[in-house]
Specification:
Distance between the termini: 74 Å
Largest sheet: 7 strands, parallel
Helix content: 10-25%
CATH topology of the largest domain: Rossmann fold
Number of domains: 4
Strand order of the largest sheet: 7-10-6-13-14-15-23
Radius of gyration: 27 Å
CATH superfamily of the largest domain: Peptidase S8/S53 domain
Number of strands: 34
Structural class: alpha/beta
Shape: globular
Strand content: 15-25%
CATH architecture of the largest domain: 3-Layer(aba) Sandwich
Length: about 800
């Protein structure tokens, strides 16, 4: 045999080996909107044909397909090599091809709905009940609002999350009427979840795991600590669902009796449709959240649209915002908007750093997190006589003073300096910690985990010190030792005491639930901030709602601390994140949908934004964690006021086609076969949005807007323009008076924003955003919009 013959098999294998070396990953191939000319089975076959064009065989093509999106979204998810994905991306009919990445949701309600003026028995006679506040008529207005909305009856809210715990009292269907005839969904069964777990409250449930299994391997109940079904092992999904639409439950509280009261969702008679697309990470502690794969979420949204939901609530996001054409949530939400389904999503938990915001698409209502006026007040006493009120919901108590140590002084040798103060796992020396109170600082590691480490080392208690970025925001956790959480200023006092006293001592007093403890709302430090890094011409977040220490339903399969050594079970739990603020807005949307069934998604967003609070309950500006007034990159238009949103006066409406036109400005095109971008594309800031953002302003910019008169009973009204311009610019409206003589009438106007020529900016001022607002006011309404401008 000659050398060439010997080499031939090797030469033949080289391309094959190269092909094998290309690692397959899940990609989403997106075609945009369906043309409506194919049946469901034809759509799937059509998708198979695309896969077959890049695969070796039909069998390989079929085996690679995870999902065929057939209802509203036209596309598929499949396992492809980078080369195969590249070939598909070059096809003219393909809008985008993007790699799937795990999108992890983060910990992104007895008091919260009462705090915004909504609390009432689901069926009580409103006029027969005494008011809770004789000075402020918020509750009377709120009860009338709830009665008009029928507590959300007839509205279906789809929740994308980790599933549901159907046995929770929050999901009882007692007294509820028949399932809406418009409902087309199913009750998908699985492990520990059968058809009886759906009822007239939970009217549908599905789960999506194909993408998760491709990424992590075949599902294993033991390793995953999860249910292969719509059942919630985690608590997060049940918490968000009950916050939005949970039934009223009397005597609800967290373990230890904290936050005792009547727990209710915002729209307690709305129906719940569950779409489980988030799963526990295999063989890992649950602290830190689950993972949600884009292909699974996109399948869930596609089904939710076809099932007939009216609202989609998504407490899921990412710390790495994606272009719209690669963002599964943004793509799915746009298709929902075409069917007039309102989509609300959480802003994320990566604040207060700027530019960290999730879900920035303008067709999504993006929700930040603020605080309540409720606190769980305990106390901390030091041996030098210093005492201070603290917050804690731990059930563990101290009997007497104990020695006080700083974590950095009692760590095992070799711990990195930056980690030495943070009570990370196995970092503390038991011989130096036993029987003592340990000062631990927030930073790396979970808050719960720090208490676990103190307990492991034999500590009697923990003082958890906030980092400066957390400010005065105190999340409450069910710790394993007596715990007091303190602000950065108090941390400094404690450290000084430890350094200067030969025998420092401390005593931690247990907490109690206290209402109207502090001015509220305040912005939380964790809530992700703008500017919008995907498109700075759209101001985000849109609005804020309560997200700190929210009590809601929990999973019977998970402990309140979400760690494996905790064997406690809780029906309700206190949880924190923009994941908690999002369903507050989703519940409010359901109520507004019930009152105004013909309003578009954009009209509902506008109503919520233009009527939002910019002041706290003491009539002072809502503060940020630095103690200064919060700007729109933190709180958007302000803190939501559902009762005011029912009658906003004017709304900024936008159609599905308006969003397609906007997409032309950000290269998100060819989505709908019936729409082509014009030769002259208007700037993105001309989308008819209830806020204005202009980056790098160096000339006069004219922003176009249109408002629609929706004032209840206001057939004739005159609105006058007013503005508080951002520093360094002038703002005027043309015209500055709008006259309406009928409901539904539209009026166009222009906002002219011009740099002031009398100001000279230094280098540090250039590119810095300044903030202001403008409003249209008649005798009954103030229609207010924020402005953000940076000068070039």
């Amino acid at each position: 045999m000659n050398k060439l013959t010997c080499l031939f098999p090797l030469l033949f294998l080289i391309p094959l080996l190269a092909s094998c070396a290309e690692k397959k990953q899940v990609y989403i191939v997106y075609f945009g909107e369906h043309k409506g000319d194919k049946a469901l089975h034809e759509i799937e076959e059509h998708h198979h044909s695309y896969l077959h064009s890049v695969k070796e065989s039909e069998e390989e093509a079929r085996a690679s397909l995870l999902y065929s999106y057939k209802h509203s979204i036209n596309g598929f998810a499949a396992e492809l090599t980078p080369d195969e994905a590249s070939k598909l991306e070059k096809l003219a009919e393909v809008v985008s091809v993007f790699k799937s990445h795990p999108r992890k949701y983060e910990a992104h309600t007895t008091r919260s709905w009462e705090f915004v003026g909504l609390e009432e028995e689901e069926t009580d006679d409103i006029d027969a009940r005494p008011l809770k506040n004789d000075v402020d008529d918020r509750f009377r207005v709120g009860r009338k609002f709830l009665r008009k909305a029928k507590h959300g009856d007839g509205i279906i809210v789809g929740v994308l999350d980790s599933g549901v715990w159907p046995e929770s009292r929050s999901f009882s269907d007692k007294g509820m009427g028949p399932i809406p005839k418009s409902w087309k969904g199913i009750c998908q069964t699985g492990v520990a979840f059968n058809s009886s777990h759906c009822n007239r409250k939970i009217i549908g449930a599905r789960y999506y795991v194909k993408g998760y299994e491709k990424y992590f391997g075949a599902f294993n109940v033991t390793a995953n600590k999860d249910f292969l079904s719509p059942r919630d092992p985690d608590g997060h999904g049940s918490h968000t669902a009950s916050t939005a639409v949970g039934r009223r439950v009397y005597g609800a509280s967290a373990l230890g009796g904290f936050a005792m009261g009547s727990a209710s969702g915002g729209a307690p008679l709305s129906r719940l449709a569950v779409y489980k697309a988030c799963w526990a990470k295999p063989n890992e502690e649950k602290v830190g959240g689950n993972v949600c794969l884009q292909e699974d979420m996109l399948a869930a949204i596609d089904d939710a649209i076809a099932d007939g939901v009216h609202v989609i609530s998504i407490s899921i996001g990412t710390t790495d915002p994606l272009p719209f054409q690669q963002d599964g949530i943004a793509i799915g939400a746009l298709h929902a908007i075409k069917r007039n389904i309102v989509v609300a999503a959480s802003a994320g938990n990566s604040g207060p750093k700027p530019g960290t915001l999730s879900n920035p698409a303008p067709w999504i209502i993006t929700v930040g997190a603020s605080t309540l006026d409720r606190a769980f007040v305990g106390g901390l006493a030091l041996g030098n006589g210093y005492t201070i009120k603290t917050e804690s919901i731990t059930a563990f108590k101290m009997d007497k003073f104990a020695p006080l140590v700083y974590a950095a002084n009692v760590v095992v040798p070799g711990i990195a300096l930056n980690d030495s103060s943070q009570c990370l796992p196995n970092s503390l020396r038991p011989e130096l910690v036993a029987g003592k109170v340990v000062l631990c600082l927030r930073g790396a590691g979970s808050r719960i985990g720090k208490g676990i480490e103190v307990k492991r080392a034999g500590g009697a208690g923990m003082i958890l010190g906030n980092a400066p970025a957390n400010g005065n925001e105190i999340p409450s956790d069910s710790h394993f030792v007596a715990t007091a959480t303190v602000t950065p200023t108090v941390v400094e006092k404690i450290l000084d005491y430890i350094k200067t006293d030969k025998n420092p001592m401390a005593f931690i007093k247990p907490g109690k639930t206290v209402y109207k403890y502090t001015a509220a709302p305040l912005m939380t430090g964790f809530s992700s901030r703008g500017p919008n890094v995907v498109d700075p011409n759209i101001l985000k977040p849109d609005i804020t709602a309560p997200g700190l220490n929210i009590l809601a339903a929990w999973s019977g399969a998970d402990s309140p601390s979400k760690v494996s050594i905790d064997q406690r079970v809780a029906d309700f739990n206190i949880y924190t994140g923009t994941s908690m603020s999002c369903p507050h807005v989703s519940g409010a949307i359901a109520l507004l949908k019930a009152i105004h069934p013909k309003w578009s998604s954009a009209a509902i967003r506008s109503a919520l934004m233009t009527t939002a609070w910019m002041t706290n309950d003491e009539k002072k500006p809502i503060q940020d964690v630095d103690g200064l007034p919060a700007n729109p990159f933190a709180l958007g238009s302000g803190h939501f006021r559902p009762t005011k949103a029912a009658d906003p006066g004017l709304v900024y409406d936008a159609s599905y086609r308006a969003y397609l036109l906007y997409g032309c400005s950000v290269n998100f095109t060819d989505i709908d076969p019936t729409f082509k971008c014009p030769s002259k594309i208007p700037p993105g800031y001309n989308l008819n949005y209830p806020s204005i953002a202009i980056p790098n302003l160096n000339r006069t910019v004219t922003v176009k807007r249109t408002v629609t008169n929706v004032g209840i009973g206001n057939w004739t009204s005159t609105y006058v323009f007013n503005a508080n311009p951002p520093s360094g610019v002038t703002v005027k409206a043309i015209p500055n008076v709008l006259v309406f003589n009928r409901i539904g009438q539209k009026q166009r106007f222009k906002i002219v924003i011009k740099p002031r020529t009398d100001l000279v900016l230094n280098a540090t001022e250039k590119g810095q955003y300044q903030f202001g607002w403008f409003s249209w006011t008649d005798s009954d309404h103030v229609v207010r919009s924020p402005i953000a401008v940076s000068l070039a």
